[in-house]
Design goal:
Pfam families: DUF1217 (PF06748). The protein is an all-alpha fold and 623 residues long. The protein has helices at residues 11-30, 33-45, 52-57, 59-67, 78-85, 95-98, 103-111, 124-133, 147-156, 166-173, 183-186, 191-199, 208-211, 216-223, 228-232, 235-244, 254-261, 278-287, 289-296, 299-306, 316-320, 323-332, 344-351, 369-377, 379-383, 388-391, 393-404, 412-417, 419-428, 434-445, 455-458, 462-470, 486-506, 508-526, 530-539, 541-550, 562-577, 588-602, 612-622. Helix 8 (124-133) packs antiparallel against helix 9 (147-156) and helix 27 (393-404) packs antiparallel against helix 29. The longest helix is centred in the last third of the chain and has 21 residues, at 486-506.
Amino acid sequence: MSYTPSIVGSGISAYAYMQRTQSQQVQAFANTGQIARDLQHLEENIQKIETVDELMADRQLLRVALGAFGLQDDINNSGFIRRVLESDLNDSTSFANRLSDKKYQSLARTFNFGGNAQLPTADARDTIRGTLSSLSSPQALFNEGNERLLTQALEAFGIEGDEDRTVFLQRVISSDLDDPASLANRLEDKAYLAFAKAAQGVEPRVDSAFLSAVDDDIATRLEALDSADDLLSDRGLLRATLSVYGLEDLTDNTYYLKSVLESELSDPDSFANTQNDPRLAELAAVFDFQSRESEKASVYGFAEVFGDKLNSFATADDLLADEDALTAALTVFGLENDVFLDTESNLRAVLDSDLYDDASFANTLDDKRYAALANLFSFNEIAGGEDIAEAQSALNNMVETIESRGSSIKTGDQLIKDAGFMIATMSFFDLPAGVEGAARFNKVATSDGLDPLSFVNLIDDSRYSAFHKAMDFKAESADRTYPAGFARTLSEAYITRQFEVAVGNVDTSMRIAISMERELTDIVDSVSSNDARWFSVMSSTPLRTIFESAFNFPSSFAALDLERQLEDFKERSESVFGTSDLSILLKPEYLDPLRESYLSTTTGTNISSSTGSQIASILMAGG
């Protein structure tokens, strides 16, 4: 059974009816015939697609992929689509980047067969972050040969035109992001802060596609959250978050939501992954609080706490008086919940142990982590007159090693290949050195911590399990991955686009009217310069139709030279709207009357022969 959209009346009245009924009509449309079958096929098969060949071979899936971007008419143009999907978007000369219609670029970016897929709502910032992370340092962005990358980065963050301000930009990306007084944090334009975070490899704390679905104030508050409890304690923020997924009815069920938000998503048996509603796992993935907690318990969390406290703890009393530092120290050794150390006398006895004396307190305990903790601070040696920096060299070296690296170690193999990091780690956890010690360290580092029969889980020395857990290794997957919500987001885009096609089969002008805002927004978001945006408008049939109608251009206008057309579009826009900046035209006070002026021409009213001043009157009345 097919669905025919209901359109009552024509022109402005028909659009008003469509606005009132569109959500219900779209839902009915999604549940019918081929659309429903396509969506089910997408849900069941998208995770299996690893290569361009596999997508091209699945015609039903390809139809959804193209349809989600309004490119369904290209389904038989296989050679062309293949070149789009194989394009390297970091190469300005690649096929997709050279096409004036940026929907092809969005298609290539979403499937990203050179890496892992991205949500269809991902923007140029998400793409450029991956490229910047591959640089040896943030300052390498300004090296000879990286001029194009610098331009792309500035364009992605909306600060194009600053290429020549290299001293200023270098200060921005060198800013201490934890210092409110640093340059990047003090600048009123927060695009520079976002640019600095990307250059320093600081990932957005909350999924960027999700943040684009909420207003700026909500997004800022969500980025500041540290834990699930922070979100659950703010009812308004929680409700705004849940509303994105249509889960507002769970607002009061905080215990249930806490279990969802703190789920380990890499574990298929975790709470969120075992719920029947897939939106819950997507919600957990947006914040990934569990990973944040894992990082706090890692050597990286330890380094963050101790970074500005090196050589500050000369006695056990100093450490016991600093709750954050003490917690970080116990946690990195997996001792934060150790009942034995709940007694302060025991903890103090461990910390003050003389490790050169086999009969000292820490050395008489079976668990070698106690002696490793005592060795890290060496309070007994400091009391004997040894310099604090020398006594705590293992601690200092670990923190300094972590701070000198641009990113964290992801796997055991990476750790073994980084000799400096490996030596610092062995010393930090007081692990045996030498040939045999290094061989054992390597076997532990490359063990699968989730496998109960792996070497790290069988070795009879708790220091190794503490080391392995504190490194917070991430399992590498040989498979291509799709982000949480990929199928759902692609489905929504597909339904929206195909509903517009169905509307167009009934009333072409209505299809143009309901797609106008999205089409124009896509251009403004994906194209950096204003002239390039106008060229994109000129290459978009629906947008060109709307603007030509509003500007009362004759049918022969399209035959003019493109540069002449560009100048005429901009000049007429200045005359009618008072601006030729397309980003400004996205404001409702311009957008709504523009749509109305177009719809009025479709009903044969006198707007079809109106002048620029008459349209301006419409705009003023609408504003």
